[in-house]
Amino acid sequence: MWTWKALKQREDGLLRPSAFRRGVVSSRASSLQLSNAKEFISLHRGAINSLEIDSTEGEGRYLLSAASDGTVAVFDTHRPTSSSTSSCASIAQHHPLFHLPRAHKFAISRALWYPVDTGLFITASFDHYVKLWDTNSTQVVLDYKLPAKVYGIAMSSIATSHSLIATATADVQVRLCDLASGAFAHTLSGHRDGVMSLEWSSSTEFVLITGGCDGAIRFWDIRRPGTFLLLDQSLSQLGTRPPLLPTPTPSNNESTSLPASSKSSSSTPILPAQKRRSHKKIQLKPPTQSSHPGMASSQNRATAHYGAVNGLRATADGFYLLSSGSDSRLRLWDIESGRNTLVNYEAMSIQTSKPIQLAVTPDSSLVFVPCLASLKAYDLWSGTTINTYRGHYESVNCCFFNAQDQELYTGSNDRQILVWSPSIPAATQIEEADSKGGITSIDQDNWSD
Amino acid sequence: MAESSQSKSGGKKRSRSESEGDPDADADAASLQSIQLENDLNFTDTAIALQMMKAQFPKLDKVVVRPFILRSQLYSSVKDRTQVDRDLESLKKEAVVRVFKLNTGKDDHAIMFMDDYLAQMENAVKRYDAKDKQLSDVFDWFKQYVIKSKTDVSISHPELCSLLSNGGDVTEKHVTLLINAGLLTCQLIDQNLYWFVIPNIGSILKGLSQGRKELLSLINRTKYKEMVLANLEKKRLRLSPLDIRFHIRDLIGSGLLKTVQSPIGLLIRLSRD
């Protein structure tokens, strides 16, 4: 908690600097309000579908926004372009650094910065194209034509050996486009309906997580064909980590049940649904013979949600995955065991037609979910609602949490980008007035004697 | 895709009873589990809430249905939803309760105690007289093999056939008989998957969805979209055979209504967004 006492304790060495920093960051992140110091002037004439800040080391500064009218804009979040002065407060206005009016023919569903630097950005649209743009000249460098409308794209931010863009389309196959060669690298098939959301793993550069309109969430290792893990909502674990396995004893009874669970640590884990089918005597249909463990998963009908999976977000440490579905549920999955942790996030209503963008704070404490016209912040581990942010007039599509400044940016169907910043306590305003020697606070009189 | 080394029939159930050291667990297990809750030394909030709501289930005159509880009602009575989910999961695994997915609304689930469900199933089977007496063995196989071992809300066709075949030869006609008797339903999205259902519950489900709409419109018509709980409980719903407290709990749990403390008492307000 950021108080003067904590600052003194840090000075005296009673509180470690990293703990102090964590306390400041988390208290700022949980006290967000509609910002009265900053606003983005959005020139978009359509619903804002995607917001992203570049992930260059130590400086997340440029906000890339994409809208349904096929326009793309980039904003500088640090330096305002002008400020509107009114009698009591001045709001810093940020106009876009550039605004591309006709980037795509139809709506843009997602725009991403190139993970390494801000020299390139990638946009994906419903006009079946994924385009790579050079930021300085705002020209298209490469484009990929896909067979169906593109719902989402992702690039791995930790990849060093590949530069692949994974694309999620209304077609059942996930295609990987290679930046280095300008062609398609491979396709991943296994989903039974279109793919709505996808995300690269934040711990391994070769693992891709996709969520489909059929409600399934699949994990792919791109070095091998097929899915190696399929999340099933009926497989659950009580608690955020699975219980420790009992030590194997030489008795016969336990040895039959243990190999199934201990084999999950081997390199080819058994899919959870297969374990149940193993103890049958007579079968009407023989099980499909497959030569590869990954290929069998196309028969696996396990679903993670009862509707389409329209948002995926992995936590920064790579242990947990959040998925939101059109059945208006948000689920937290333990990636390593592949099970539903059964954390219940209180009632929400998620829009069903479009993919949405979730946001998680880097210390994995809060998750921000767009719920129709408002945005809700939930505690990640217990599922209680911490805050509801109401400010947009129509449904919110995307949100992005800027970890550098602890600000939240949200974009919605009402064509606005709103900024939510930590509420500054009144004490600092009085301090500022004293130090400058002039009267800046609203409460003070202009004509005191 | 490794095969487990268990070659005995009725795999999971047998191994659990063997590990408990109880050779004739079949008949006793069902009756033991129903009184297991009462013999426990410590209760969970969820278990108490379930027992309480089962006792409060309204008496219906037209249809005979054993008490069931909606999941949203549980959320409204116990504070911590995550704990409710986890307790429910462990109760499901112990086969004390059974969870069913309903087709009214987005994510409705009904919870029924195992002995209630078995009694409901018996009533349904008795009322449904099968034309072919040989096929009616499938009901016993269903009860013995499928219900005991499969605790999920749905089951796939190959698995259903393999579990039923532990009792004897299974054909498609047997599965059709189960569907006609009202114990299973085809899923709309996938022909190969079936939901478990509570038999003879159709009219109540219709009453449920209509009652919800009626209650919401009742509160919507007030000037400030709120009403005192005491006044609300006295009203009767026209379209639903279930009483109003059932619907109030259900709507509070699903987030459409919220309770507000006031000097008058508890107010029920329509929640916006």
UniProtKB/TrEMBL annotation, chain A:
Alphabetical list of InterPro entries matching this protein: Rad28/ERCC8/Ckn1/ATCSA-1, WD40/YVTN_repeat-like_dom_sf, WD40_PAC1, WD40_repeat_CS, WD40_repeat_dom_sf, WD40_rpt
Biased composition regions of type Polar residues, renumbered to the chain: 286-300
Pfam families, A to Z: WD40 (PF00400)
Biased composition range(s): Basic residues: 274-283
Keywords: DNA damage, DNA repair, Repeat, WD repeat
Ranges of Low complexity composition bias in the record: 255-273
Gene Ontology biological process terms from the UniProt entry: proteasome-mediated ubiquitin-dependent protein catabolic process; protein polyubiquitination; transcription-coupled nucleotide-excision repair
Domain of life: Eukaryota
Region: Disordered, residue numbers: 240-300
Repeat positions for WD: 41-85, 101-143, 188-223, 302-343, 389-421
GO CC, alphabetical: Cul4A-RING E3 ubiquitin ligase complex; nucleotide-excision repair complex
Name of the molecule in the record: Transducin/WD40 repeat-like superfamily protein
Organism: Rhynchospora pubera
Phylogenetic lineage: Eukaryota, Viridiplantae, Streptophyta, Embryophyta, Tracheophyta
From TrEMBL, chain B:
Name of the protein in its database record: Serine/Threonine-kinase
Lineage top rank: taxon: Eukaryota
InterPro entries named among the record's database cross-references: STK19-like (IPR018865)
Coiled-coil regions listed in the entry: none
Region span, Disordered: 1-28
Organism of provenance: Rhynchospora pubera
Family statement drawn from the similarity comment of this UniProt entry: Belongs to the STK19 family.
